[in-house]
């Protein structure tokens, strides 16, 4: 239930207090931010191979979210300055799926004074999965671009 948004589970934030100082957001919550035209800075923290659809594991080549800046998780410590103008603005980090890289990158930003860091739970994979499988959320597919034909 942690990956569900507060409109689905109104008591979520009163029952669950994460041990981290960044926020975990569900795909549906992310979608609601997009629909509301909330200003956010998207950061794709996947490897360059994944972002350019050149990963050896073809299933990981699933496109990228439009308007996201690419800063690989392994480079977040040295390249975080590229995000400095967003220190007090919502920053949403996403990875391929549910791996730990987004959490590590979020922790780096929080320790450097970023105040509104968010991790998109289950990453771009879940954006695409939700768009294809949950009634009423198909419009999320319009957020993803550069999808190889074999993974459409």
What are the key terms here?
single chain, 152 residues, alpha/beta, five-stranded parallel beta sheet, two-stranded antiparallel ribbon, 6 helices, globular
Give a written overview of the molecule:
There is one protein chain. With 152 residues, the protein is of the alpha/beta class. Helices cover 28% and strands 14% of the residues. It is built from six helices and seven strands, in the order αβαβαββαβαβαβ. It has helices at residues 12-15, 27-35, 48-51, 76-79, 101-111, 123-133, and strands at 23-25, 41-44, 64-65, 69-70, 91-94, 117-120, 144-145. Strands 1-6-5-2-4 form a five-stranded parallel beta sheet. Strands 3-7 form a two-stranded antiparallel ribbon. Helix 5 (101-111) links the parallel strand 5 and strand 6 (117-120). The mean pLDDT is 90.
């Amino acid at each position: 239930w942690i990956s569900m948004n507060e409109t689905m589970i109104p008591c979520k934030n009163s029952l669950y207090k994460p041990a981290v100082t960044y926020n975990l957001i569900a795909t549906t919550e992310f979608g609601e931010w997009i629909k509301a035209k909330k200003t956010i800075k998207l950061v794709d923290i996947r490897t360059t191979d994944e972002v350019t659809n050149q990963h050896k594991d073809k299933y990981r080549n699933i496109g990228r979210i439009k308007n996201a800046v690419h800063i690989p998780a392994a480079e977040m410590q040295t390249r975080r300055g590229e995000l400095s103008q967003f220190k007090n603005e919502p920053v949403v980090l996403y990875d391929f799926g549910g791996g730990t890289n987004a959490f590590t990158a979020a922790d780096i930003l929080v320790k450097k004074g970023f105040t509104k860091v968010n991790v998109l739970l289950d990453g771009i994979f879940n954006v695409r999965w939700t768009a294809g499988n949950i009634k009423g959320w198909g419009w999320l597919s319009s957020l993803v671009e550069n999808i190889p034909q074999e993974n459409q």
